[in-house]
Amino acid sequence: MNLFNLLEEIEKVDPDFQDRINPRRDAIKNITSFGSKVAVAAMPFALGTLFKKAYGQSASSEVITVLNFALALELLESTFYNTGAGTAGLVPTTGASASYISTIQNDENEHVTFLTSAISAAGGTPLTAASFKYVDFTAGAGSNNGPFKTVFSDYPTFLAVAETFEDTGVRAYKGQAGNLIGNQTYLTAALSIHAVEARHASAVRYLRNVLGYDTSINPWITSTTASGNDTNIGAAVDANYAGATPENTTVQGGVDITTLPSATGSTTSVATATAAFDEPLTEDEVLAILVPAFFQFNS
Amino acid sequence: MKTETELKSGEVSMARRSFLRYAGAGIAGVGVIAAASSCHKDHQVVPANSATIDVGSGDYGILNYAYALEQLEAAFYTQVVKTPYSSIPSAELTYLTEIRDHEVCHREFFKAALGAKAIVELTVDFSKIDFTSRAAVLGAAKVFEDLGVTAYDGVGYLIQTPAYLGIAGAIVSVEARHAAFIANLLGVSFADSTQIDSNGLNISNKPSVVLAAANTYLKTKVSAKSFS
Predict the structure, then answer these.
(1) CA distance A229 to A258
(2) Which one, of B62, B48, B196, B50, lies nearest residue B119 by Cα?
(3) How far is CA A254 from the centre of its chain?
(4) What is the DSSP string of A50-111?
(5) Which of A100, A230, B53, B89 has a 20 to 30 A CA-CA distance from A242?
(6) CA dihedral A257, B177, A104, A100 (to 10 degrees)
(7) Residue A294 per-residue DSSP state
C-alpha cells in the first residue's frame, strides 16, 4: 500500500481531511515514524485509527468480535507452544523437531502481538492472559488431568494436541471469513494468518508421520472416515473434524466433487475430494470444542 | 541475464510492450517473485501478436483467475508425475501424485462451477523447468504453491458472494499445506521470511504481481485488468 498516494486520493474527495486528522499534520508524521516491526505491518490499522480521528468511526463491533475470537485462539496456541518449548526434555533438540516447534512458537507469539495491536488500533479492548479463568491443555476442564494428561511430558501426545490445535485453528479462521467479507484490511489479515496456521498444520502432520507417531497421516486432511477425523488420536478429537460442514464434505459450491474427472479417470475419489478442500467451523462449534475442556473465560 | 541486443530490435520492442501489458501496474513488484526474473526467454517465444486472455470482472473474474492458476498447477504436477525426477523415493512420488490429484480437482471444480463463463484452457510453457532434477522440480513446486497462497489471500476481499469466499478459503489452506510440505521436502522452513512477514502473516499479492510470475510459465498469457 502506498500510504501517501492514498492520502492524496482522500484529499481529492475531502479537501479538509488533513485538518480533520490534525491541523499540524503530526498524525502523518507519527504513523510513518513508528519504526517498530509491529507498526510497519500494522499500518493499515494505524490508518484505521486515523480514519477514526477524522470521521469518528472505528472498526465495527463485529470486526472487533472476530479479532478477539482470533486472539483467544492465538493466546491459547502461544501459551501451548511457550509451555512446551519451555519444558526441559519435551521437544527433541535434534532432527526437524526443534526448528519446527520454534518456528511455530514464534509465529503464534507474533499473531498475539499483531492481533492485540490491531484490536487496540481499531478501538477495541484486546483479550489478555488475564481474560482466562483457566487454561488446561490436558482437556481436563481445569483439572489438568484430562485425556491428554501427558501433553507436556510425552512428545507424541504434545504433537497430537498441536496437530489438533492447528487443524482447528485453520477451520476457525475459515469460519470467520464471511464475517469480514469485502473488508480489505481485516479479511486480508485474517486470511494471511489462516494460511500460516495451515502451514503449521501441514508441518506438524508431516512431523508426526516421519517420526513414526502416525504413519498414515498426510500433511492435508484426507477424510475417508464417517467422523471426518483422519488422525489416529482417537474419538476425543472427532469434533475437531466434524461440524455443520465436516472435513469429509464432498460437495463444494453445489458441485459434487466425486463426479468430476480426475487425472486418471472420469470420477474423483473421496480421498482426493476431501483432501482438496478444507472446511470451516463456526465460532460456536470452535467454542464447544474448547470450552470447558481446554479453557474457560473469566465471567 | 542476456542483454536485449541479442534479440532483433523489432522483437525487443514488441516483447517489451507485451510484457508491460501483462505486468501492468504491478511491475515494481515483479522482483519480489524470483521466478519472474528469468522472463527474458519468454520474450523470444511469445509471438508479437499473441493474444492475452483476460479473466474478466466481478466474482466470475476472481473465479477465472483462480481457474487459470489451478490450470497451471495441475499441468505442472501432471508433468512431474508423468516424468518423475531421477531416483525419486516412492513416498515422494505418492505425495506429489496426491498433490497433482488435488490440483486437478481444483481445476475441474472451477471449470464445472464456471460453466460457460470459464476462460479457455491455457497452454503452459515449462521449458525452463528441468523435470529430471529434484531440486528444480521441488523449487518450481514451491514457487507455484507459495504463489497460489499469495494469490488467493490477495483477492479474498474482492469476492462479493459469501459462497465463493468460502470456496477460496477452502482451497487456499490446502495450497498452504502443499507449500509447507514442499518446503519441508526441500529442507527449508515451511514459514520462512520470504513468505511470512515479521507479524507472522503470510504475504499476499495483487493479481498483477501473481500473473507476472505465472505468465512466465504460460504460452497463453493471462491478465486481470479489472483487478489491477
Answers:
(1) 19
(2) B62
(3) 27
(4) HHHHHHS----HHHHHHHHHHHHHHHHHHHHHHHHHTSTTTS-SSSHHHHHHHHHHHHHHHH
(5) A100
(6) 130
(7) T
Closest listed residue to residue B156, CA positions, set A239, A220, A183, A150 = A183
Q: Which amino acid is at A135?
A: V
β-strand B221-223 against B52-54: which pairing, if any?
parallel
R_g over Cα of chain B = 17
A195, B173: Cβ pair inside 8 Å? yes
**Residue A29 CB-density burial (10 A; 0-12 exposed, 13-18 middle, 19+ buried):** exposed
Work out the number of other CB atoms within 10 angstroms of the CB of residue B152: 28
- Report residue B180 as a C-alpha cell: 509447507
Is B4-40+55-216 a domain of CATH 1.25.40? no
**CA–CA distance, A225 with A234 (Å, rounded to integer):** 12
Question: How many CA atoms does the CB half-sphere of A279 hold within 13 Å?
Answer: 27
Residue A252: φ, ψ to 5°: -125, 125
Residue at A148: amino acid letter: F
Indicate the helix (H) or strand (E) that contains B137. Answer: helix B134-155
Q: Is A68 helix (H, G, I), strand (E, B) or coil?
A: helix
Taking only residues 223 to 242 of chain A, the set having a beta carbon closer than 8 angstroms to any beta carbon of chain B reads none
For the stretch B121-171, pLDDT in tens is 999 999 999 999 999 999 999 999 999 999 999 999 999 999 999 999 999
User: What are A38's three cell numbers?
Assistant: 509491529
- Taking a contact as any Cβ pair under 8 Å apart, which residues of chain A between 45 and 104 contact chain B? 96, 99-100, 103-104
pLDDT surpassing 60 at residue A51:
no
CA dihedral B113, A191, B194, A75 (to 10 degrees): -150
pLDDT band at A58 (very low <50, low <70, confident <90, very high): low
Nearest chain A residue to B187, by CA: A96
> Hey, what's the cell of B214?
505465472
Q: Which parts of A118-205 are beta strand (E)?
A: 132-135
Give the closest residue to A85 by CA, choosing from A138, A135, A136, A152: A152
Interface contact A263-B78, CB threshold 8 A: yes
* Residue A199 with chain B: CB contacts under 8 Å: 176-177, 179-180, 190-191, 196, 202
Closest CA to A239 of A297, A294, A180: A294
